[in-house]
């Protein structure tokens, strides 16, 4: 599908820190933003991919987003809830833009140059992503391990995007980097590991910080 499981995981992870009454809106607006973005990218992606190191830059951005989404927030204060909603939607759209760089060309090719086929595929994807995101959200509330699994998937995607950048790959080969270290699965696993370790360290440090009454006493 044009929008698939990794999109649902991304949307669920981004929406999990929203107040419960705004989560459905976050899922719907995030999905709508991703759909609109795919429609635009389908038309201009060929030109975008000509920009040097665009995929490498996108991979680093996705790595940062994956770590950011992995950090667990304990503050669900509703004071700035509307702002948090739109910040969440922007995060979803930005991450989806990066994730789509590596596959939207193939999708456009499968549509055989007919925008109607691309748009039909996007529309069919909407209910699957919305319900998939809500299911992942319910699971995230119960099982923290799923949060780390989702972050690992985003990190894996960032790694593959990074090693697929033609300019970066050519430069690394010119520097005499062993082929094993340039294997896409090795790089993807390495980036996924970096995301998971960084997120775990940040979460562990936050747990050790005094909060609320403890901070006042100190």
TrEMBL record:
Where in or outside the cell it occurs: the entry states: Membrane
Show the Pfam families listed in the entry: TerC (PF03741)
Q: Which membrane topology describes this protein?
A: Multi-pass membrane protein
Q: What keywords is this UniProt entry annotated with? A: Membrane, Transmembrane, Transmembrane helix
Give the InterPro entries listed for this entry.
Integral_membrane_TerC (IPR005496), Integral_membrane_YjbE (IPR022301)
- What are the TM regions of this chain, as residue ranges? 26-48, 117-137, 144-163, 186-203
Q: Which GO terms describe its cellular component?
A: membrane
Concerning its family, UniProt says: Belongs to the TerC family.
Q: What is this protein called?
A: Integral membrane protein terc, putative
Origin species: Heliobacterium modesticaldum (strain ATCC 51547 / Ice1)
């Amino acid at each position: 599908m044009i929008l698939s499981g990794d999109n649902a995981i991304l949307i669920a992870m981004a929406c999990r820190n929203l107040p419960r009454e705004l989560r459905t809106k976050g899922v719907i607006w995030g999905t709508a933003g991703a759909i609109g973005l795919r429609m635009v990218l389908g038309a201009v992606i060929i030109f975008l991919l000509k920009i040097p190191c665009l995929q490498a830059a996108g991979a680093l951005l996705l790595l940062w987003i994956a770590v950011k989404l992995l950090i667990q927030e304990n503050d669900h204060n509703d004071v700035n809830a509307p702002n948090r909603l739109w910040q969440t939607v922007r995060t979803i759209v930005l991450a989806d833009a990066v994730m789509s760089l590596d596959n939207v060309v193939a999708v456009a090719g499968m549509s055989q140059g007919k925008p109607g086929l691309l748009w039909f595929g996007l529309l069919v994807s909407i209910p699957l992503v919305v319900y998939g995101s809500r299911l992942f959200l319910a699971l995230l509330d119960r099982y923290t391990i799923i949060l780390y699994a989702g972050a690992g998937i985003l990190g894996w995607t960032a790694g593959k995007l990074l090693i697929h950048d033609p300019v970066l790959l050519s430069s690394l080969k010119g520097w005499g980097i062993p082929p094993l270290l340039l294997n896409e699965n090795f790089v993807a696993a390495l980036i996924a590991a970096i995301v998971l370790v960084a997120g775990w360290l940040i979460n562990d440090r936050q747990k050790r910080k005094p909060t609320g009454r403890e901070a006042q006493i100190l």
